[in-house]
Amino acid sequence: xxxxxxxxxxxxxxxxxxxxxxxxxDQVSLTVNxxxxxxxxxxxxxxxxxTARAVMxxxxxxxxxxxxxxVLFDGENVLDKSDAEMRELRGRKIAMVFQxxxxxxxxxxxVGNQISDALRTNLGMSKREAKERVxxxxxxxxxxSPESRYGNYVHEFSGGMRQRVMLAMALSCNPSFLIxxxxxxALDVTIQATILELIQSMTERFHMSLIFIxxxxxxxxxxxxxxxxMYASHLVELGTKxxxxxxxxxxxxxxxxNSIPRLDTQAKFLTPxxxxxxxxxxxxxxxxxxxxCEHAMDICSQEVPPLKEVAPGHFVACHLHP
Amino acid sequence: xxxxFLEVKNLxxxxxxxxxxxxxxxxxxxxxxxxxxxxxxxKxxxxxxxxxxxxxxxxxTARxxxxxxEPSSGSIYLKDDDLLSLxxxxxxxxxxxxxxxFQDPYSSLNPRKTIMQILSRPLEVHNLAKGWxxxxxxxxxxxxxxxxxxxHADRYPHEFSGGQRQRIAIARALAVSPQLIxxxxxxxxxxxxxxxxxxxxxxxxxxxxxxxYLFIAHDLSVIRHISDRVAVMYVGKIVETGTVExxxxxxxxxxxxxxxxAVPHADPLKPPPRLTLQGELATPVDPPPGCRLYGRxxxxxxxxxxxxxxxxxxxxxxxxxxxxx
Lengths: 322, 325
Known about the structure:
The structure holds two protein chains of two kinds. By secondary structure, chain A is α/β, with parallel strands linked by helices. Chain A has helices at residues 48-55, 83-89, 101-104, 111-123, 127-140, 146-149, 159-171, 189-205, 217-223, 241-246, 251-259, and strands at 4-17, 20-33, 37-41, 64-73, 76-77, 94-97, 177-181, 209-214, 226-231, 234-240, 308-311, 314-316. Chain A is globular and about 65 Å long. Chain B is α/β, with parallel strands linked by helices. In chain B, the strands form two sheets. In chain B, strands 6-7-8-3-9-10-12-11 form an eight-stranded mixed beta sheet, sandwiched between helices. The radius of gyration of chain B is 21 Å and the shape is globular. The mean pLDDT of chain B is 90. The A-B interface holds A 43-44, 158, 160-161, 188-194, 196-197, 215-219, 221-222, 241-242, 245, 255-264, 266-274, 276-277 and B 53-54, 161, 163-164, 191-197, 199-200, 203, 218, 220-222, 224-226, 244, 248, 258-268, 270, 272-275, 277, 280-281.
């Protein structure tokens, strides 16, 4: 029944910077099945975006370097592909929606022009066919009067509408896999609700697999089937949505869930995770979370705990769960 | 003596757009009604949460109260002083009473100054500490209050993380021993685990110094956590205000209701977020008469397009601006 589309195996990405070597992604392994929605959660700098970009081979090399691991898409290692083969893959098989549409879209071309450009290059459509298809797409993502919006520039759209344009562009070449990198972070809640609904209906309608990157646990609670939690370059916990929320095992996941103020009750004080996120240029030895962890033991500062299956489908990387 | 620490009455700020000569001759000037006739109060020692989506006028309200910008009309009373008619020398005293913490601690701290310099500046302006030793002692005390150490005093802002910078910004606000702190989205730029630390810090400081807060945020769960009373803003207007329980348990205004329905709960067993309004945010530029929510509202009637509803008391401290409730 499980039909893996994307398998990331032991991925490691680092950056060679003037200030030193920064390991952004380390020993990350995960699988996304067909039509599955995978939520990748973590705070800023935890390596979520770099993981996603490594799948698309969008990590700038240099200063970046994918120093270990494999990324299998439909059984083929993406990391071994030539640049020409990657161009085939991007857009047509895997598409990406970025957080900030204003910087991801080109301000000097009209929206219609940009999307039809992708259609003409990737699918070899004629100018007229492409225009028809773009209008169809804009209509599909819920942009009112798409014929007249075709000739508008990005700055003429509101934030929510820009994200709809990004989505139309991502969907343009019928990809089977979508990566959405914080697509609703810059949006107000009411707009966020509509965009989440739209992404969900699109993935269902076109049977797409989705990696949804976010720092908002509320968002993954309602959009994702499986959740992976990242902390300081490592995947620390992986499981079904219900498992992660009902039975979080890693102290970081627990801490994260306790830190969010709740909407239904009011507590005088929150229970934050103590301390600060480690400096990734000089990360601590062993488990990266150990300086902030309340359950830290001697072994935690010596060995990096591997990701282990503790219950069917529930993986955790913690020495408390050997 | 007023019961309220801060009282805002009919506060209005209109920004003229296309206000050049040619547009004015052609009658093409437009007006952005950022804050349009709002009234609210804050009692001493309480936290009023001001919530709304981007562009609704929350930050403009904060800037008006601190007189960083001048209102078009209306009045602001701080205890018994009318802030807008206060002579400049008294205004300096008011600035000691009311302090502001900004959203982005990356742009609100001068990158060329050390933390010592940043925190001693308010002491110099208000003449609160003379001589290096006195200032140094005061600054170290402030750093301890916000959970930083002595070793941080001589560093520069870039050496700190976002959460630590926000602690420094809070320390700067505390330097003059204010009574009212206005937080303009002070935790929005922070990660969840750090956000919780800063929210706790706000609470602790409030208890210790009996501070009054005006806390501005767009995140409803943050507002729910920190506030005693809440005011909900929509495109320049306050649409509903009441105690935190009333607003979250028993919201009356369709906009408040929609806002609450749109928030994703961090709990997969709760219903998923959805939008009960049509279309997108209205624009504050030359808004039509009537309710600002007209056109999006599921319960609108004809009167809503013609007459702007007033905030009407619904018992207790609950006020709602809606024709159809």
